C-alpha cells in the first residue's frame, strides 16, 4: 500500500469513527438531517405534515404567508414545492415577494413578459444578492405559468429615509412616490412594538432613542406597504390565492404584515407558516414551545455562525454600512 493510499485510508477510517459519534439525527427521527430538510407540523396539535398535505389544507385560504430566514436552503425549497402544490389545487395564484420593492414592479413585469433577461432583472430591479439561489425557482414558476408577481416591499429609498429622518419624511414625497405607499403607513400594535425593540436591544428599561423609533417606523412602512400591495393584487385578480414570501419577523405571531392585512381586510383568511431553528441535541420537534409563531411550523438546522471573533463581526458590519447606498433625503 503506497503512502498516499495509506493516508487516504486513515482519513476515511477517522471520518467513519467521527460520524458514529456525531449527534446528527437519523432519518427516522422526524428531525432535519440536511440543510434541505424542513419537517412540517400543525402548530395547534403537533401533527406532522408533508407538503401535499399542507397544500390540501391551504387550498381555500386567501393569503398564505411563508416566513423565512433569508438564505436558508430548506426554507426556499419548501416555498418552491408549496407553490407548485398549491397551484395544482388552485391555479389562480399570485406570488407576492418582500424581496422586490414596489418601485421596481415595472422591471419585474418586463422580465415576466419576456422583454428583459435575468441579469437585466437583477440589475434593474435591484434584486437581492441571493436572488438566483433562493428566489429564481418561484419567479420562474410564476413566469412559466403566467402568474402575477407582486413587488410587495416599500421602496428602499423611502425606508432608508424614514429610518434616518422619521415618519415626517413621507410628507415631502411627490405625487408619484405617494402612490407607492399605503394610507396609514405606520399602523402597528403594542405587541409588535415591544417585540421589535426587544429584537434590537431596546427593552428592559433601556431608553428608546430617536434613531430606534425611526427604525421602528421604517419597519412599519415595510409591513403596511406589503399588506397594501397584497390587497391591491387581490382586488385586481378576484378569486386568486396569494402566496406571500417574507422574512419571518414580518409575519410570525400574526404580527407585522399579517396584522396589517387583517386590520385592513378582516374578512380575508390568512395562514401563517413560520420557521423554527432547532437547538442541538433535541430529540423531537419542539412544536409546543413555538406554537404561537404560526398556524404551521417548519423546523430547520441552524445556520453556521458568521463570525466567532467579535471584532471581525464588528468590522464586517461597519463595512456593510459603508457599502450602503448614499441616501439623499432632502
Automatic annotation (TrEMBL):
InterPro entries: Cofac_haem-bd_dom. It holds the Pfam family Cofac_haem_bdg. Residues 54-260 form the Haem-binding uptake Tiki superfamily ChaN domain. Coiled coil: none annotated. The keyword Amino-acid biosynthesis does not apply. Residues 1-25 form the signal peptide. Keywords: Signal. This is Haem-binding uptake Tiki superfamily ChaN domain-containing protein. It comes from Marinobacter profundi.
